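Continuing the batch. This is chain 6 of the set; chains 1 through 5 are on the previous pages. Same settings as before, nothing changed between runs. Recording input and output for traceability.
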Amino acid sequence: LSFWPVGTVIRTLGGYFVKRSARNDRIHGLVLKRYVTYLVKRGHLQKFFIEGGRSRNGRMRPPKLGLLKTMVSAYLRKDRRDVLFVPVSISYEHVVEDSEYAKENTGKDKTEENLLSLFRARSMLRQKYKEVIITFGECIRFSDFKAEFDKKEDKEILVEELGNEIVSRIEAYSNIGLRSLTCLSVLLTKNYGLSRDALCTSVRNLSTVAEWYREVEGNTEYAQPTQALSRFLNNPEEFSHDFQSAGVISQGPYLGDELVYLPGSRRYTADFYKNSVFHIFVPLGLFSILECIGKNVSPEGVRPWYDLFAREFLLPRWSEYSKKLAHYHEILVREGILEQSPSHATNSNWRFSEVGKHHLIPGLLFPLIESTLWVMQCLDHMPFTERPHPHDPSRMRKIFDYNALLRTAQHELRYSKYAGEFTRTEVSSLSGLISSIEGLASQGTLSLQDRSGKRTSIILEHEFEEQKNQLLETHRALQEAMRKYPLTRCVVTEGEASERGIGNRTVQSSPFSDQSQDDFESSDDSRTPGRGKYIQ
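Output for chain 6:
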């Protein structure tokens, strides 16, 4: 937004721009640090996007810590008695630049923002983008936050924890909408389609899961439903609810029923909506994995998957997250979702009950596992160079070209469905592949090299054959579970049947075979909505 005249207006109003390459520009970094310190000292209100930019996949991104470090330094030097951080969440029903996000996720370059693009965008003023909800969360008083840390902890850890706490609260205060739960429901199915009755049931079930999330977090203001979702929950049988809004979901007649489905060209868009509420369902998704692979459904059993996804979902430290999982486990037992297996005399083996299997969501984490597996497969077959380890010359490390890997992963994934291995369209999203690479890097399996602020190389630090085999077994188990426990099954009660004039029946809709999905290349026309976040 620094182009004329927008940049001029923003600077006139007191705004300042931060270069993405600030770490490589010492003069800019020094001036920025002095200016921000001055603003903190004078007590000026500052608003900034802590993620450093807009999310391309819908999930919260890790915090950028540069400005936070400067503000914390000002406090530690006693330039200011205290600093308050207010997490602010901006939740959109429909985002203006959705089509642009989709193009970027197919690998195309970002369109440059300039006066001409602003002029062309005037047609947007005639469109309706529905609700925009701004939520101001409870402020974080830095003096109190610092008091909770041991005095021996250094500033780097303190700032990192502060950044994680801010983004976690922004994410938690984000509202959940009808469109988000609709897209999530369809993407949880094996073949991207389900009956309208099953969709209504799924949205209600997911809304119940959101209540459990608020209970575990201990804040009733978290994950509040939008007006559209509230209207649906208060009167779910009203057929005026528009599941086709924003042109994401399609529907049509199928064997005497109404089928809701997701064409290949819109799956990136739907995936973005799904990701905007993804964090609410992560605990249930982790427990669902344990059920599908036949393990004891317990908080302790989640640990290997926590290590894999902790960075992706911005999860807190295991010591804290394990307590939340234990609370979540108690809720599932209380609600009859989990039961003790009678085959174990010790009664310590927990499984999903028959009623609880209606809440089983094996498809939630399935695309992420598939994406990680695909990155591993590509690394196994990509050309590489070898260099000795800087601390152990006898040990050679494989080095891959970062951009070549992304191009290969996106290009060849479109053919993988014909081999019957990887079938999820959303896995080919550029932002999703990057997240998988970063997830492996956070575990220490890979390391990433930058040059002039841009990533250039991937270094294989450790072999991942054992981890890949574990993911392959889990991948097969989740595939089978998605077939065995489809969301497309929905029982219509006698009262509902007479109301709708359809007769009492069980609806089972599975219109697509495994090989009848739209081609991956059809995703080029997809549209991706977003959600903005900033702190005050």
